[in-house]
Amino acid sequence: MGNLAAVGGAPDQAGQCGRTRGVAALRVAADRADPAPRLGRHPARPNFTSFGRKRLKEAASERLFAISTARITLEAELGLKPAGAAALCFKPLSAGEFVRAENEMQALLEATANESQSKIERKSDDLGFEWLIVRDPDFEDLVTTVHLVASELQSRGFGPQLLAAIFRFDGKSGPVYWIYGYKQGAFWPFVPKGEKERDNAEELELKAKLEPELPIEQDLSRWFALYGAPL
Prior knowledge:
The strands form 2 sheets. The protein has a 6-stranded antiparallel sheet with strand order 2-3-1-4-5-6. The protein has a single domain (10-35, 51-222), classed as BMC (bacterial microcompartment) domain (Alpha-Beta Plaits). The chain is built from 6 helices and 8 strands. α4 runs antiparallel to α5 (139-155). It has helices spanning 14-32, 52-62, 66-76, 95-115, 139-155, 200-210, and strands at 81-90, 119-124, 130-135, 162-171, 174-181, 186-190, 192-193, 197-198.
């Protein structure tokens, strides 16, 4: 089995060291990224960026919904069925932020529960990262709720902490994850094999199959692994 280095990208450090480095690397990437995810300029619209940074951020967030239509290809052609679960991962908070976050998060969960039939739970891992796990048997509703929760987090001032949305699909060989990086504004596949290995060959095959439908991160060194995600 080849690795990402063999096809032009540096191998993901998390592939050898588990979720600790995977989430940490994602956090570093988020810290270094521009606050507004970069969008490619369309040749017919050279002044696209004149809409401003807010417009760019909104356009990038809409990319999340591409996974809704890609589900058809994933299920019909690749035999990958939605598991009815997704999660949002965000960075650890400072002591001052934590106090405010406790009240804000509770209000967020209550507000989302009133607007959606999805079930949402909050977890903290041993690294201090926060997870909001969303469960819904209807995939479109699942994606919509993830977007709603992420938008609420951003509107409440937690946008800089927001790292990624993770969608789980189940196949014959096990789970397959599509990860959406908010700072990258793009998806990448993650196929774990055991506790600390990943199936690079299948990930590259998924990239080739879904590239016409999903905005996929082209820098393979930024395909961060998230071992042990709680979904």
